[in-house]
Specification:
With 149 residues, this protein is α+β, with helices and mostly antiparallel strands. It contains 5 helices and 4 strands, in the order ββαββαααα.
C-alpha cells in the first residue's frame, strides 16, 4: 500500500474508494514492506497470496517488531487442499476467534483449525466407504442439516 501524497513511490495509484476515502497501492511500497519484514523475520515471501497470522509483542518503537509465533497461510494452496470453503469464511473464522475471550495465540487458532480439518477428514473417510449414490445424496443434503446453534 501507499499514501496518496507519497513522493517516495512513483507508481502510486488509487485502486478503490471506500466510504468516500480513497485507497492507494504501489508495487514499490509492497516490495519495500516485504523486504523489510523478511529482513526482520525468517519468513520469505512465496509470491502467492499469503495470510500471515502473527503474535506480535508491542513496542513504543515503530521500527521494532517482535514476532513470537506465526502461521503462514498460503491461501492458494489451502484452497486447492480444501482447507476452507472460501477465503471469506476463513477470514470470518479468524475474526470470530480474535474477538472471542478464548483468543490466546497463533498456536491456539492453528490447533482449532486443525481439529476442524481432522473432523472433515474423518467424514470424508466415512463417506468414501459408502456406496457412491448414498455419499452423493448426503453431500446434497448436508447444507440442509438441522444444527443446534
Amino acid at each position: 500500500g501507499a499514501y496518496k501524497n507519497s513522493t517516495e513511490f512513483n507508481d502510486v495509484q488509487q485502486i478503490i474508494e471506500i466510504d468516500g476515502e480513497p485507497w492507494f497501492y504501489s508495487d514499490s511500497a509492497l516490495v519495500d514492506v516485504v523486504e523489510s519484514f523478511e529482513a526482520k523475520t525468517n519468513w520469505t515471501y512465496s509470491g502467492e497470496n499469503e495470510l500471515l497470522i502473527l503474535d506480535v509483542t508491542p513496542s513504543d518503537d515503530d521500527e521494532d517488531i517482535t514476532v513470537s509465533n506465526a502461521i503462514v497461510c498460503n491461501l492458494e494452496q489451502m484452497k486447492a487442499d480444501k482447507a476452507f470453503t472460501s477465503v471469506r469464511s476463513l477470514i470470518e473464522n479468524l475474526i470470530r476467534y480474535a474477538a472471542s475471550s478464548e483468543c490466546a495465540d497463533a498456536w491456539e487458532f492453528s490447533d482449532k483449525q486443525g481439529i476442524n480439518v481432522a473432523k472433515d477428514s474423518l467424514k470424508e473417510g466415512f463417506l468414501g466407504l459408502l456406496p457412491k449414490s448414498v455419499s452423493t445424496l448426503y453431500r446434497k443434503s448436508e447444507g440442509f442439516a438441522v444444527r443446534k446453534i
